[in-house]
């Protein structure tokens, strides 16, 4: 059997150092993958004059699995978000953002275990109909939801819940006000829920969801929602477990999947060996699970949990005084 090749985009800022950390840990746990390194973001712009070179797109398509560090899209007009472009190009319709408490972080809760599943290609982020009037006094954008898109994402959420032995799926919406788009999403979510009688189904308005997540997060298990709400809710959930440094993300389509750190490229600490690589290590755990390597994924998760709990060589954001390379060594030793 030929080896699995993984496309690796190291990314900008702290990206290269945290990706190196994740790859070292994958090797230490006994993964035998080939890696094809390609560029995107500012690193690619400097080399090729493009944020997303064709060679990078070809590699993602060819290898199907990608591990990626944070990318910087230059702010301002003329540059489309690289992440949005990748999601559209490869139809990565499902964004999967799990958060789990690790003992030893400075989080306010200690028993969080929530997965947010966000529709990745429609809604407010599809970029449709964006216009600003010539005099700059009015702006508008269009949100579009299709029955097919809603059905795909809600089905994905229930299938994931079933596969992972989850008990409950909450559809998050704003159908009371956005009667057309959110209304369609909710209608479809209810239809899909009926196909999964063994899983408890709930529905909740997005603002109430935010309040409940802060007050009683234990009420949630799997949440499924549209693009804009999912973006906001998944970051709120990251805040429950200690911030974006503890939150990975997967973008999954029929033919390709991209696993990533969800935080920014932190240019202020780039090259200083200070970054916490946990987010991208957790993303590599998601990747292993996707590839059917659950046992290796669990070993890495336990090693991270041990290091954070004992405070052995943790990074500053975890209350320690060590850097990326020390933290990585501690995880490798814990394995």
CATH topology of the largest domain: Isopropylmalate Dehydrogenase
Mean model confidence by pLDDT: 95
What is the CATH domain class of the largest domain? Alpha Beta
Report the CATH superfamily of the largest domain.
Isopropylmalate Dehydrogenase
Rounded Rg = 20 Å
Strand content: 15-25%
The largest sheet, given as strand count, sense and whether it forms a barrel, is: 10 strands, mixed
GO molecular function, one term: isocitrate dehydrogenase (NAD+) activity
Domain Isopropylmalate dehydrogenase-like: 5-331
EC number: 1.1.1.41
Organism: Pseudoalteromonas spongiae
Question: Can you characterise this structure?
Answer:
The model has no long low-confidence stretch (mean pLDDT about 95). This protein is of the alpha/beta class and about 325 residues long. The chain starts with a strand and ends with a helix. β1 (about 5-10), α1 (about 15-30) and β2 form a beta-alpha-beta unit. The relative contact order is 0.17. The protein has helices at about 15-30, 40-50, 55-65, 80-90, 145-165, 180-195, 205-215, 225-240, 280-290, 295-310, 325-335; strands at about 5-10, 35-40, 65-70, 95-100, 115-120, 130, 140, 170-175, 200-205, 220-225, 250, 255-260. Helix content is about 40%, strand content about 15%. The protein has two domains: about 1-100 and about 245-335, Isopropylmalate Dehydrogenase; about 115-240, Isopropylmalate Dehydrogenase. The protein has a ten-stranded mixed beta sheet with strand order 2-1-3-12-11-4-5-10-8-9, sandwiched between helices. Strands 6-7 form a two-stranded antiparallel ribbon. The chain contains eleven helices and twelve strands. Belongs to the isocitrate and isopropylmalate dehydrogenases family. It comes from Pseudoalteromonas spongiae. One of its GO terms (molecular function) is isocitrate dehydrogenase (NAD+) activity.
